[in-house]
Amino acid sequence: MHDYRFADAYIHNVFSVARPHALVMVDRDQFGFPLMYAQMVEHQRPDVVVLDQELLRRSWYLQDLVNQRPALVAASQPQVDAFLVAVKPFEAGQSYHGNVIDTAYYAMLTSFVVRSETAGHDVYFTYRPDQRLVQGYAGESVVVALRARRGAPARGAAGMAAWLTPVDLAQFDFSHLTDGTVPLDRNVLMVRSWYGELLAARAQLLEKAGDSAQAARLAGLARQFLAAGDTAP
Fold first, then answer.
1. CA 27, 31, 34, 35 torsion: positive or negative?
2. Kindly report the CA angle at 65 between 59 and 71, in degrees rounded to 5?
3. Could you read off the pLDDT of 1-25 as tens digits, one per residue?
4. How does pLDDT run across 79-119, given as a tens digit for each residue?
5. H/E run at residue 145
6. Cα separation of 196 and 202, whole Å?
7. Residue 34: phi, psi to the nearest 5?
8. Where are the domains of the chain?
9. Is the pTM of this model over 0.85?
10. Residue of 191, 195, 196 lying closest to 233 (CA atoms)
11. Is residue 140 a contact partner of residue 149, using CB atoms and an 8 Å limit?
């Protein structure tokens, strides 16, 4: 296992693309825990807010956010309170209304996204977000995550080029994803497929921006990552 460095690479990739004070939304423990470890143990990128969408379904996680990110919770306090009221019967083993919980849950998530973006902080998704969370936003592939952007680029290649977030492929660590030297488990295959989708999407944006050479490079790498046809997160 000495070459199994995929979690380190995942941490590096996400934090290398996240701008200062960004909100990074993750889904599933295996993708959230590496980033949490990097922040809490190794003290990497304490400015970045990492939210686990699935853990946000539990009151204990929200209480931890109150302690760790009080400003984030305070900015969405009405939505957080409404969700806690809705989920309380479920957590107490009492009769509950699933639709009420779901509605309050997505209202809270949407508030986190909107208020972070409105405050000038970039918002990134490390998975395909539910459309309820990104209504009114354009999704920009930044190779290893999807950035939620308010508004669309101006027409034409120049407008697209000016709109795109600068990304250098050399800043990312894709070690051992295709060389066959290290066995790839289910989680790594999911990440590789997700990267493939994002690379293909970024290639399309670059083509529209008139950068055909870079678009072809990213499209080629996307084909390598997607060759196995694995399911993305």
1. negative
2. 130
3. 888 999 999 999 999 999 999 999 9
4. 999 999 999 999 999 999 999 999 999 999 999 999 999 99
5. none
6. 10
7. -60, -40
8. 6-226
9. yes
10. 191
11. yes
